[in-house]
Specification:
By secondary structure, this protein is an alpha/beta fold. The chain is built from 13 helices and eight strands. It has one domain (6-265): Alpha-Beta Barrel (TIM Barrel), CATH 3.20.20.70.
Length: 270
């Protein structure tokens, strides 16, 4: 496990292993707390390098139908913001793969940014992706997270102008998240590999941060293609779909098998 060094240590290790990092997203509390913990354990055993733990929210602008439904299942089961922090703390205590939160501004604002930052750090999380914070408001939002040493990866999309992309990469910490296609998350449409390849090449000239690609990645073939060019490969909806409708050991078995198939697809680099 990553005891220190945060996200930089994860990418340094995978770089030394001559491969991309495998990053997988789940929703905290989908469909319940114990299933989430069992799935995290299975993902860790399958060799996942980093787990994005989504905090369920009723108005998730970046989430497609699969993840939005997972969030609703979690909320219907009574999952609260603080419960997501507790899940991360329990998983960390069990030596899970490192955890990075994925959430939105409104839930953090209601919970309290300072309270969230302190709770996330105490839970062992490495940072948070907050996709609806615009670059212009980052300095007003980020200080509590930075004060706790938490990373704030930022997103670049295919419609981001080059000058703005350079400013985003300069403001990001941990890694830069390249959104591989327009629209919300979901496994129905595959990633735009050609755009991702060009974006990685361009951004290598503006930042030394690792570049991870997500949205639309769901198959071993996708992972092989993206893993050949990026520092990290992010999978969310495909994983959530893999165990949707199940609980406990069966959910963990399905999640672990799916993650193992993608882990095996990561190409070795020369």
């Amino acid at each position: 496990m990553i005891a220190s060094g945060g996200l930089a240590a994860i990418f340094a290790r995978t770089r030394a292993e001559r491969r991309a990092a495998l990053i997988m997203y789940i929703v905290a509390g989908d469909p319940d707390r114990e299933t989430t913990l069992a799935v995290i354990e299975a993902l860790t055993a399958a060799g996942v390098d980093l787990i994005e733990l989504g905090i369920p929210y009723g108005d998730p602008l970046a989430d497609g139908p699969t993840i939005a439904a997972a969030g609703q299942r979690a909320l219907s089961g009574g999952m609260k913001f603080a419960d997501s922090l507790e899940i991360a703390a329990t998983a960390t205590a069990r030596c899970s793969a490192p955890i990075l939160f994925f959430t939105y501004v409104n839930p953090i604002d209601r919970y309290g940014a300072v309270r969230f930052a302190r709770g996330a750090r105490a839970a062992g999380a490495l940072g948070a992706i907050v996709p609806d914070v615009p670059l212009e408001e980052l300095d007003a939002f980020a200080p509590p997270l930075r004060a706790e040493g938490l990373a704030i990866p930022l997103m670049v999309t295919s419609t981001t102008p080059p000058a703005r992309a350079a400013r985003i990469t300069a403001a990001a910490s941990g890694f830069v998240y390249l959104v591989s296609r327009l629209g919300v998350t979901g496994a129905g449409r595959g990633p735009d590999i050609a755009w991702a390849a060009g974006a990685v090449e361009r951004l290598r000239t503006t930042t030394a941060l690792p570049l991870a690609v997500g949205f639309g990645i769901s198959t071993p073939a996708h992972v092989a293609a993206v893993g050949a060019l990026a520092d990290g490969v992010v999978i969310g909806s495909g994983l959530v779909d893999a165990y949707a409708g199940t609980r406990g050991d069966e959910a963990a078995r399905r999640a672990g098998a799916y993650a193992a198939s993608l882990r095996a697809a990561l190409p070795q680099r020369g």
